[in-house]
Inverse folding.
C-alpha cells in the first residue's frame, strides 16, 4: 500500500529506546522519517561531536563490512565531552536480499554488530539504522525486531489487493497537510497515475498546490488531468472509467491518445475495453442475484463481497496474490446502474466480434474501435 507506516514493536520489557530502525522499499519515505528521528534522538543541542553519521551505501562486500565495523566502533566510543551521542548508519543497502547482502563478509560483520547491540550500548549512546529494501528474513533484522521498534515504509504493490485504498489514504493525508481538498474522483485518478509512490505523490501535489495558488484550495478532477502526466496505465484507467460512465467523446480522445503512443487496437481492446465490460457484467449479475446496493466508494466493495458465500465469488477475477480484484469491481459497481444485464451480455459478445474483425478483416482499426466504443458508451 502506498506506503502506510507500520511499526513493529518489541515484546514488553525488551524494547530498547536507544535503538531505532527505519526500513522499507519506499526510499523517499525511509529517508524522510530517518531524518526526523535523527533530529529527535540527537536533540537540539547536538553538535559535530554529538552525531556520528556513517554512510551505509556500499559498492562491495568489503566496503559494507568496513562500514558495519565502523558503526560498531562508533557505538563503543563515548562522546568526547560527555553528554549524549547519536550513531546513525544511514541508507544501508547491504540488508537487502542481494549478492551484497548475502556475502559472508557482510553476514559476519552484522553478527559482530548484533552482539554489540545485545550486550548493551554505553550510557548516552543512541543508535539509528536506516535501510533500503531490508530483507525481513535476515537474522540481524529479526534480532532488531525483538529488541526495538522498526518502522517500515514500503512502496505500494499494485499486484496485491488493497493497494488502492492505501494510496488514496496517502494522497488525502498529504493533500490536507498542504491545505488542499480533493474530490474522490481526483484522488482515485492521482492514485492510479502515481501508483501510490510517495515521492511522486508529493511532486504532483506540489504542482497542483502552486497551480491553484492561495485563493483556491480545492483540486478537481480536471486539475489532475491537466497537470499530472498520463502514463499508459493512467490512460487505460481513464478509458475504463469513461466507458463505464458512458462518456463517448472522452473515450474517443483517450483511444486516440493510446494509438498515438503506439498502442495497437487489439491491445486497447484487451486491456481496457474487455475488462471494463466484463467487470460491469460480473457486478451487475452479482448485484441482481444478491440484491446488492452500489458501494459509496470503490474500496468499500470488498467488504460487500466478503459477506457473500464463497461459491458466489469464486468466478471473480483475482490478483497475483489470489485475492479478488475488489477495487476494479467496486469501480464497475459504482457505474453498473447505467447498464442493463442483458445489454452487458450483448456488449461482451460485441467485444468478441470486434476482436475477430481486428485480427482477420483488415479493416481500419480505429473504425472498429470507434464502432465498439460508440455501442458501449451510447446512453
Amino acid at each position: 500500500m502506498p506506503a502506510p507506516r507500520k511499526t513493529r514493536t518489541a515484546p514488553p520489557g525488551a524494547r530498547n529506546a536507544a535503538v531505532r530502525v527505519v526500513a522499507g522499499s519506499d526510499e523517499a519515505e525511509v529517508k524522510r522519517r530517518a531524518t526526523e528521528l535523527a533530529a529527535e534522538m540527537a536533540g537540539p543541542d547536538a553538535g559535530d561531536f554529538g552525531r556520528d553519521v556513517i554512510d551505509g551505501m556500499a559498492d562491495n562486500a568489503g566496503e559494507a563490512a568496513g562500514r558495519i565495523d565502523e558503526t560498531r566502533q562508533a557505538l563503543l566510543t563515548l562522546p568526547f565531552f560527555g553528554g549524549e551521542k547519536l550513531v546513525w548508519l544511514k541508507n544501508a543497502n547491504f540488508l537487502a536480499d542481494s549478492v551484497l547482502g548475502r556475502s559472508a563478509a557482510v553476514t559476519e560483520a552484522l553478527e559482530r554488530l548484533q552482539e554489540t547491540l545485545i550486550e548493551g550500548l554505553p550510557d548516552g549512546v543512541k543508535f539509528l539504522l536506516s535501510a533500503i529494501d531490508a530483507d525481513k528474513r535476515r537474522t540481524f533484522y529479526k534480532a532488531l525486531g525483538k529488541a526495538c521498534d522498526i518502522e517500515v515504509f514500503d512502496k505500494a504493490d499494485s499486484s496485491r489487493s488493497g493497494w488502492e485504498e492505501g494510496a488514496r489514504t496517502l494522497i488525502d493525508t498529504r493533500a490536507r497537510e498542504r491545505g488542499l481538498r480533493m474530490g474522490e474522483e481526483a484522488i482515485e485518478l492521482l492514485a492510479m497515475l502515481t501508483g501510490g509512490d510517495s515521492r511522486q505523490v508529493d511532486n504532483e501535489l506540489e504542482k497542483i498546490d502552486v497551480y491553484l495558488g492561495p485563493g483556491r484550495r480545492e483540486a478537481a478532477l480536471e486539475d489532475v488531468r491537466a497537470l499530472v502526466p498520463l502514463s499508459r496505465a493512467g490512460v487505460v484507467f481513464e478509458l475504463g472509467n469513461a466507458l463505464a460512465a458512458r462518456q463517448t467523446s472522452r473515450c474517443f480522445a483517450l483511444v486516440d491518445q493510446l494509438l498515438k503512443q503506439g498502442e495497437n487496437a487489439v491491445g486497447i481492446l484487451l486491456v481496457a475495453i474487455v475488462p471494463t465490460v466484463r467487470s460491469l457484467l460480473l457486478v451487475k449479475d452479482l448485484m441482481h442475484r444478491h440484491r446488492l446496493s452500489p458501494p459509496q466508494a470503490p474500496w468499500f466493495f470488498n467488504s460487500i463481497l466478503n459477506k457473500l458465500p464463497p461459491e458466489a465469488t469464486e468466478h471473480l477475477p483475482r490478483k497475483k496474490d489470489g485475492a479478488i480484484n475488489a477495487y476494479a469491481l467496486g469501480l464497475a459497481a459504482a457505474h453498473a446502474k447505467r447498464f442493463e444485464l442483458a445489454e452487458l451480455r450483448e456488449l461482451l459478445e460485441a467485444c468478441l466480434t470486434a476482436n475477430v474483425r481486428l485480427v482477420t478483416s483488415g479493416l481500419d482499426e480505429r473504425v472498429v474501435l470507434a464502432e465498439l466504443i460508440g455501442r458501449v458508451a451510447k446512453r
User: Anything to note?
Assistant: The longest strand covers residues 85-92. The CA atoms of residues 180 and 216 lie 9 Å apart. The chain has a mean pLDDT of 87.
